[in-house]
Amino acid sequence: MANNKKTAANGFLAGTDWVYTDLVKEHFLNPRNFLMGDETKYPHDAEGIVGNPICGDQMLMMIRVGKDGEKQEVITDVKWKTYGCASAIASTSALSELAKGRTLDEALNISAEEIEEYLGGLPKHKFHCSVLGHEALASAISDYRKKHATK
Ligand code: FES
């Protein structure tokens, strides 16, 4: 039986760690809430931009915040763009869907495991890519809170 943790002679991981699920591929090819064009034209309440020190990729996330019934400070829209890889694109696409309709605190609590579950799995060595979107979202939420802090 093959051991998918084994390192091949060429130094790469061998086995099923290479495999992207159909859902990851679908989100990579058709990313949800992806910001096309000029971000300065997108009306937003806050934004965050972060870089991933592991690979040098960057992510910009912009959010709109409003009210949903009794819930205050709900994320009503999310837009993002990145220089990131396929995993970063697919996981941020998933994150952007998961974040809409949640309060700021609920959105901050979206875990990498929840994103991975939403996508039906991610290769383990691409786990750090899913963190990029979450950090950008956290940065955007922090930006929103700074702008709306009571003085
Ligand atoms: Fe940079 Fe995936 S390798 S975000």
Structural write-up:
The protein has a single domain (22-147), classed as Alpha-Beta Complex (Sufe protein. Chain: A), CATH 3.90.1010. α1 packs across α2 and α2 (86-99) packs across α5 (127-147). The longest helix is centred in the last third of the chain and has 21 residues, at 127-147. The chain is built from five helices and three strands; from the N terminus they run αβββαααα. It has helices at residues 22-29, 86-99, 104-108, 112-119, 127-147; strands at residues 46-51, 58-68, 71-82. A hairpin with a 2-residue loop joins β2 (58-68) and β3. The protein is 37% helix and 19% strand. Strands 1-2-3 form a three-stranded antiparallel beta sheet. It is globular. The chain is α+β, with helices and mostly antiparallel strands and 151 residues long. FE2/S2 (inorganic) cluster (FES) binds next to α2 and α5.
Topology record:
Blueprint: H1 22-29, E1 46-51, E2 58-68, E3 71-82, H2 86-99, H3 104-108, H4 112-119, H5 127-147
Antiparallel strand pairs: 1-2, 2-3
The site of FE2/S2 (inorganic) cluster has 9 residues, from helix 2 and helix 5.
Overview in brief:
With 151 residues, the chain is α+β, with helices and mostly antiparallel strands. The chain has helices at 22-29, 86-99, 104-108, 112-119, 127-147; strands at 46-51, 58-68, 71-82.
User: Regions with pLDDT < 50 over 5+ consecutive residues?
Assistant: none
Give me the number of helical elements.
5
The secondary-structure class comes to alpha+beta
Could you say what the CATH topology is called? Answer: Sufe protein. Chain: A
Q: How helical, in percent, are the residues?
A: 25-40%
**How much strand?**
15-25%
Distance between the termini: 63 Å
Bound molecules: FE2/S2 (inorganic) cluster
3D shape: globular
